[in-house]
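Open question from group meeting: does this chain pack into something compact, or does most of it stay loose? Before anyone orders reagents, we agreed to write out a predicted structure and look at it together. Recording both the input and the output here so the notebook holds the full record.
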Amino acid sequence: MTYEFTIIVPVYNEEENLLRVEKELASYAEHAAMTTKILLVNDGSKDKSLEMIKAICARQAHFQYISFANNCGLSAAIKAGFDATTTTWVGYIDSDLQTDPNDFNKLLAHTDKYDLITGVRADRKDDLIKNLSSKIANGIRRAFTHDGMDDTGCPLKVIRTDYAQRIPMFKGLHRFLPAMIMLQNGAVIQIPVKHFPRMAGTAKFGVWNRLLGPLMDCFAYLWMKKKYINYQIKERG
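Structure tokens returned:
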């Protein structure tokens, strides 16, 4: 099968969620707006996640995986997924499935005009402290990047693959995907999507790394913005 769209699913110690990931994404692939494959990226899990991932890929034709030797973090998992993608479009969803894979079709409906389409969790189902820390972090990021995005932490995005693959590797890149596409003169839009409480497993981010991490990353982004080189190849021979 010739695929048009790849969904990256970073996985770190998510054995309690993986069967639901398999069920929901296999179901979505049946009615996806583009022919879709799923790339599970095991980020050095210490539980049974890798064993389960291998079993899922053995029985599901649309599923593939890559696995890190060690835990490298969410940004590394996303970047590795980008680099391994061969389809025209690439998406990203968290393995906790607090967003709905079916909402990918809402985002894919805008690929004719935009290079990145990001979800916005319109009615977040997280606790007060998590919501407040995310709101503050988003405000800090917007002040530095002027990207106009309300919720870059939303784990539901669609990106034109050649744009995604030009994003440099750095910790925290998942918070700056719209800004990094805009540095390439790409067009960005945000679309409201559904959000659910975490059903199983443990959240990997706390209040501290939702606030201090984004602040430090903003300074790294400003440095990259100053040094960024944007070019287009006109001819080949």
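Observations to bring back to the group:
The longest strand covers residues 5-11.
The chain has a mean pLDDT of 86.
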